[in-house]
Structure formats: C-alpha cells, structure tokens
Amino acid sequence: MSWQPELDELKRREAFAEQLGGVERVKRQKDGGRYTIRERIDLLADDGTFHEVGKIAGLAQYDGRNDLDSFMASNFVFGRAKVDGRPVVIGGDDFTVRGGSADATIKEKHMMCEQMASSLRLPLLRIVEGSGGGGSVKTIETRGRANLPGSVGWNLVVECLATVPRVGLGLGSVAGIGAAYLAATHYSVMLKDKSALFVAGPPVVEHTGQKLTKNELGGYKIQLRAGAVDEAVDTEEEAFECARRFLSYLPPSVYELPPRGDQNDDPERQVDWLLDAIPRDIRKVYKMRPIVEALVDEGSFFEMGRMFGRSVITGLARMDGWPVAVMASDPYSYGGCWTADTCKKVQKFVDLAEAFHLPIIYLVDCPGFEVGLQGEMNGTIKEGVRAMTAIGQTSVPWCPIIVRNAFGVAGGAHRNPANHSTRYAWPSARWGSLPLEGGIEAAYRADIDAADDPEQELRNIEDRLNKLRSPFRTAESFWIEEIIDPRDTRRLLCEFANLAAPLRTPGKYSHGIRP
Predict the structure, then answer these.
(1) Whole-number Å distance between alpha carbons of 50 and 89
(2) Which of 78, 80, 85 has its CA nearest to residue 46?
(3) What does the alpha-carbon distance between residue 90 and residue 82 come to, in Å, rounded to a whole number?
(4) Cα 91 to Cα 231: distance, rounded to the nearest angstrom
C-alpha cells in the first residue's frame, strides 16, 4: 500500500506554510517596500541551497471530523543554506504572522536555530523584524496567563556568539527580544528609512511622557551613534551584500582559521605620498582612512561601526590575501583621544579579532584618554581599563605602527605587552607620559618668569625639549624597535601578515566573546 496520501497531506501543509500570513498581510508587507521572509532568504542564500527545518510547525485548525481545516505556520523560518558557496544557518522572522510576536511563534525553533549553528559550527545569519518571537500585550489573552520573563534559551545565544560568526539584519521595526537578538551579534545592519530598533516602541514609551516617532526613538542615526548596530544601508540587497562581505573575512567557526583570499595586489607596492601624509604642524589634522586604504590590499577594507567611538577606526581587511583586523586612530574625532565610547568599541573589536584568530594591525595616533568633566562623567578610565584588559587577553599577533602621537596610558595601549609584537614608528611619531604642549609653561614657570625675555625663554625650552623627544633618541635605548620610511609600510605589513599566518591557533577564546 502506497504512502502517497500522507505525502499529499505533507505538500498541502507546506503550501499553507508558503502562504505566510495570508494574501492581505503579505500585500501590506510588500506595499511597505519590504520583502517577505521567504523572499529575503532566497535573495541571501545561493540559488537552490536553502534546506528548511520545521516548515510545517505552526497553528492548525481542525474540523468536526478532526481533519485539517486551515494552518498558519510559525512566524520564524530557519534552515541550512550556502552563501557564496559557504555553508551557513539562516533564520528569520515572518512579520506577516502576528508581527513576529510570541502569539504565533514556536520558541523551540528559535532555540534550535541557535543550537544548530553552534553545534554544526556554521555561521548564523538572523533576519529580525518585529519582536523576534517576544511577547505582546495580547499574549496574556491568547495564552490565558501572564508569562514570567526569563532567559530560557539565551544560553544558546551565548554559546553561538562564542563559537561562530553571528550576523544580524534588522529589516523593519525591531523591539524586545528581537532587539536583543540583533544586538547580540558580531556584525549588524539596519535599513536607513525602514528600520528602527528599540527596547520598547513609541506607544509604550509614550506612557513615560515621551512622544516620539519610530525614527526619533530608534532610527538608524540613533543606533549607529549608540553603537547598537554597525551599519545602515538603503536597501535590503545592500544589507545582504554587507553580510556576505563580513563573512568572507572570517572562518566558519572558532575551530577553524580564516581563509586566505586572492593575492592580486603587489605586497612590495610602495605608497609614495605617505611620506607627506602626516603634517609637521601638530595642530593640523589629516585623513586616516585614505592611509588605511592605501596600505591594505586594494579594495579590501571593510569598515565596521563608523559612527560609534569615532576616534578609532575599525574594520577588516586583507594583507597579501590574509584577513586581518585593522584599528586606526582618527585625529578628526577628539584628536584621536580615547573616549568612553571608543574604549567600548576597541574592546568589542579586539574580542572579535581574538575569537576568530585575526592578527591585529593598529595605526596609532592617540594623545591619551579624553580629559575633562564629560570624560570623567562617562567613566572613561573604567572603560579604558576594560579595553586594555581585552588587549592584554589577546593571543593573536599585533603590529602597531606609531604614525604620530602615543601619549599616556591610552597611547601605550597599542599592543599586548605580554607577547612579542612587530612594532614600527614613522619619523613623525611623538610619545611620552603626556604631550609637552600646554605643560611647559606650568613646569618651567619659574625659569620663564625670571628670564629677561619670557617669550624667547619659552621658545628655547620648547626647542630643547622637542629635540629630546625625537624618536631617534628613544631608539637609542631600544624603546622603539624600528623607525621606518612610511613608503615601506605596506611591504612590512604584508610581511607581518605572512609571519602571523602560521601562528594562528584555532579554538575557543578563553572566556567567550561578549557582544
């Protein structure tokens, strides 16, 4: 006897699931300029590679004869797929079914998605819209009781974070546990005009006396500056491309090493204009991003978190094909000083590099921590100590290039002092416990006041001290290993990347990574 009737019933139920929330709700999603979850997965995954898990899990209605009358699938879709030929796990919310809330979800699907990614050691891409399976005010009625909040299943998110690359794509309004899923990632993207991220949305917040629109409360400008997400783009297709590119620098899991990419850029290439890149006048700023772009393999720099902690630029790149993590000071923001936000950014980025075995290159121009009342109120020194501790916990190789300033405690946080690092300095480098500027008059007040010409005496003292702080004087005592021609920097960084490649050791970071 054939089992064809059961297979026919399976196809019927799968057809119900493919209808998502129904024609009207799908139309509303499309009219809002947003793809459905199944369209999103089709656009993100390589053609024909998505293998769904739990497709027919959902809410069924039966007639008087106990035969299936209607069926609405759970509002979370997940499964295995390939992205650019690499196996991954993809999971996403279906906003057409109760806005992604708990009333229409099966929490076990969310949990298995996380467990599958960490157990199979595959990168996880989560598409988040709505509350990500969280509750709504209707939950108390649909369930007949109030839910006691808990963190059931969050241990799986923590394990996933410590094991595989975890990417979050916020493609609509995201609140509650959905916001937590989006924030608990190594890399996250929002849409500029159609996304918002918040703990609770405007209707809830209005009860606190704050009447705000979605964008005013949690639009992309708010969340990029807060560091809750890394990037914002105009279209969903751009968001998918960001995810693909981010994953291209990383291994499938912490138990493997990042693969080497194409070697299409000459490692011996000289960048002549770098000789004049740093102004002699220390009061003048310069643009760091063109320097980074000139040093790494052409077109390979992938910046992350541009709007947060802006005095340090962070991103992934390649040197002679090898993936590396790049940090670079930005003198256009606080003169390159480490603010509290910058320290948070550094900690997260260094954790990312350590977790996925990426050597770290740091172009240093840091005059120290932010000083003043605002810096103290933001707890800069506490955050700075956390960042320094993260640096001290790294085992990956470091290669700092001191291009100008390296002052104070923050200026010294340019490598893990417990391990050897390949460190260089440009002739434009300056360092010390604190910059001379602003401190000379206080330290030499008696000499200046006693001079016949106080202004000339000040200039004489400045000239004398500037000669003493020359990087060549430091090199005499081997406090700086090598002073280099800036034009040779790319060659030396490519050499570093090749030396560092065999030193990378797969395995889990000692305490796991924190988002």
Answers:
(1) 9
(2) 85
(3) 9
(4) 20
pLDDT tens by residue, 37-82? 999 999 999 999 999 999 999 888 888 888 888 888 889 999 999 9
**Tally of residues, the chain:** 515
- Cα–Cα distance measured from residue 431 to residue 402, given in angstroms and rounded to the nearest whole number: 9
Same fold, 4-248 and 272-429+480-503: yes
Residue at token pair 């309004």: 173
Q: Which residues pair with 79 in a beta bridge?
A: 52, 90
Model confidence at 102: pLDDT above 90:
no
Asked: is 272-429+480-503 a CATH 3.90.226.10 domain? The reply is yes
CATH, domain range 4-248: 3.90.226.10
Helix 340-355, helix 380-392: angle, nearest 10: 20
Which value, to the nearest 10 degrees, does the dihedral of the CA atoms of residues 457, 462, 463, 468 take?
A: 130
DSSP per residue over 382-400, as a string?
HHHHHHHHHHHT--S-EEE
Q: Looking at this protein, which amino acid is placed at residue 372?
A: G
* Residue pLDDT, tens place only, 236-262: 999 999 999 999 999 999 999 999 999
Could you give the CA distance from residue 275 to residue 271 in angstroms, rounded to a whole number? 8
Ramachandran region, residue 309 (left: φ > 0; alpha: ψ -120 to 50; beta: rest)? left
Q: Domains of the chain: which residue ranges?
A: 4-248, 272-429+480-503, 435-470
More confident residue, 68 or 234: 234
Kind and range of the H or E element at 186? none
Binned at pLDDT 50, 70 and 90, residue 99 comes out as: low
Q: Is the pTM of this model over 0.85?
A: yes
**Which amino acid type is present at position 356?**
F
d(CA 268, CA 477): 30
In the structure encoding, which two tokens stand for residue 58, read together? 């959902």
